[in-house]
Amino acid sequence: ITVVLVCFVAFLVSLAVVAKFSVHGRRNIPPGPPGWPVLGNLPSLTKDIHLQLTKWRYQYGDVFRVRFGLQDAVIVNGSEAIKEALVQKAKHFSNRPDYYLVRCVNMHFGAVFCPYGDRWRALRRFTVSTLRFFGMGTTILEEKIQEECRHFCSTLRLLVGQPVDLKNRLETSVSNIIVSMAVGKRFEYGDPKFGRLQLLAERINVTFYRSYIVNCFPVLRFFPGFRKMYNELMDRTAELYSYIREYIGQHGNTAPDDIRDFIDAFNKTKRDNPGFLPDMTLTYLIADLFSAGTETSCLTLCWGFLYLTAYPDVQNKVQAELDRVVGRDRPPAFSDRINLPYTEATIMEIQRIATIIPLLPHRTSDDTTLLGYDIPAGTNVFVNLWDLHMDPSRWPDPHRFDPARFLGENGRLLTHDAFMPFSTGYRRCWGEQMGKMELFLFLTNTLQQFTLKLPEGTEPDFHGISTAFIYPRPFSLIVTKR
What is the residue range of the signal peptide feature (predicted)? Predict the structure, then answer.
């Protein structure tokens, strides 16, 4: 009887959701694949969601509709539709999905899932201005990144000739850049507390992704299996927030004029403007900075090193360009970019072919249209960045790693309207300049000093592990001095 009742209620809710798309005569809804009662298209979206959505694009067009359980969502593909949504109609498409799990762990108080509006604008102004204060886009930040590059390369010298997994070492180096700005502390390699923070951030991403169905059916959190994942998410986020609050507590309520980190900057802003964001915001902002600021650059570099070992001719060309322009007597500087077009094209090709964040979650704030289709307010919208970067009509033979895609006949860099590694519009990555600097300096410093190879008899595996990010499967490299 209970099962029948649940299905009946779900059926009524389904009717309400469908009606939402047709009220006030708004009948021009996007097409989409047929789904199951109650479950919608979830049975087809259990693994590598971005790949299935990309297949449907060729069947239903650049804008189509799917159902995650009882929730309708619109999938946006292709540069024309993406730019219409995120640039031309940014004020309508810049909200974030109101996920049940996000509310459970208060992620909506942070930067990533903050609803579009006055609080988001205040948070963005504070974050961007503080990043700039600490040197984003300047030589001040560059020196911090160079310091971590030196530490990273020093560890590689100790591992020459033996198989090594670079991911953990990269995580520590990249994390230290944003963590030093966030809490005013640098961690050493092997620090157990820092290792725990990194592990928590990664497991939270994985658990949130695997628990996605609970967003569609919150009642599932009471059922075995789902309850375990739900409790793990609650416990891991609580532990991560506890660590962050510990660092915030060490600062007390001080607001020195000599700002050392984000905590000082937040306290000073609160002192000067008591009506500023609530105190709890700082905890969730630092959590977002730590997770997003680490995973994006670290995973891109990991994918990059994997592709460079699989395509040694590309690695050799980058090294030859570095030798010609920079030499071996000084480390590469960010100002060298303009004279290293092949190296820069290689980084762009890594970002394209890896696309570590395949789907960008958005939500409409108002009734609007997209490519002529009616999209009601409150509709979850997913921008398929994976499809954009792997579209064979824009990128011939898209699975081939080829930096020459970004070079003109004269060898200069080309711009490409189907290349958006940092997204676009109002929700464009706030730390884009820092990310570009990290990718360039870590890759060039590494290849200036070392050559990377796969262990004998090893084949590269380019099929990643899908979560909110796409992780490369664990792999080892052989590092040799040049």
Answer: 1-19
Strand-by-strand arrangement of the 380-384 sheet? 63-68, 71-76, 380-384, 359-363
Nearest to 282 by CA among 255, 246, 235, 245: 245
Amino acid making up residue 319: Q
Return the DSSP state at 407: B
pTM above 0.85, yes or no: yes
Helix (H) or strand (E) holding 373, with range, is: strand 373-375
DSSP string, 60-103: H-SEEEEEETTEEEEEE-SHHHHHIIIIITHHHH-B----HHHH
Which residue bears the tokens 């309520």?
253
Distance CA 414, CA 407 (A): 5
Neighbours of 124 (CB within 10 A): 15
User: For position 256, what pLDDT does the model report?
Assistant: 64
CA triplet 288, 293, 297: central angle to 5 degrees? Answer: 150
Query: What span, in angstroms and rounded, lies between the C-alpha atoms of 43 and 58?
Result: 20
Question: Mean pLDDT throughout 458-479?
Answer: 95
Question: For the residues 80-104, what does the mean pLDDT come to?
Answer: 96
What lies within 8 Å, CB to CB, of 428 at 6+ separation is 422
CA distance 98 to 361: 10
How many of the other CB atoms lie within 10 Å of CB of 235?
A: 12
pLDDT tens readout for residues 291-324 = 888 999 999 999 999 999 999 999 999 999 999 9
Report the C-alpha gap between 96 and 43 in whole angstroms. 24
- The span from the CA of 305 to the CA of 299, in Å, is 10
Region 163-184 average pLDDT = 92
Q: What angle do CA 342, 303, 357 make, to 5 degrees?
A: 105
Q: Which residues contact 209 (CB under 8 A, 6 or more apart)?
A: 466, 467, 468
d(CA 68, CA 72): 6
Contact assessment for residue 120 and residue 109, using Cβ atoms and an 8 Å cutoff: no
Three-state DSSP class for residue 420:
coil
Q: Structural domains in the chain?
A: 2-481 (1.10.630.10)
Q: Which residues are annotated as a binding site?
A: 429
Helix, strand or coil, per DSSP, at residue 413: strand
Angle between helices 226-251 and 262-272 (to 10 degrees): 70
As annotated, the binding site for heme includes 429
Both tokens of residue 476?
A: 């080892």
